Amino acid sequence: MVVAGVRHGSPHNDEDQAEAAGRVEREVPAVMKKTALRALRKLWPVAVPDKKIVQAKKGQVVLPLRGLCQLDCWSCGLTAAYSILDYFRPGQHSIRELRRYCDPDPDEGLGPSEISAALRRFGLKCRITRTLNKVSVDAEIRRGNPILVGVEGDLLGFDDDHWMVIHGTAAGEVLLANCLYAGRSSQWVSWSWLKPGLEPSGWGMVVSG
Q: The pTM is what?
């Protein structure tokens, strides 16, 4: 956990990757674990993109951001950041290119300063708010700005907190990316469910082009 941010997430249920990571945990001395995990990660994809971009229905405002499902338990920050980067710069950069500037630590994940610094390298603007509410969410989405948020792990049933992206709004609801469903990681949730789980309370990173 990072002050004013989130680290870690929960993995997509991929048995091969879970087995490989578990084998590293059991067999590699702690001092070598990070190096071994980084090496193993190069052998599998970082994330699985959603098959379709969610389309707005009546009464909804949706930013055409393609959600991703991470394939390990420490890349939620990278995955969420790349969804935002690809929204603003569609098809121009790969997730591996972004990772050069914000490579998650297998134990710690990524903090907000690392994510914002990486996105700024690609010409994006990042603004921190500590008073996020449904009115401000609606306003930013209507301006075309996705919002990176940290969500308490307890709310999601995870051991660790999790990075997600708000990229849609409707009456009483928001559209969240990085929900860890392979192929359909963007999901509508009620604002009343999400609001108490924001970590820290009211914190968000508004990203604009």
A: 0.80
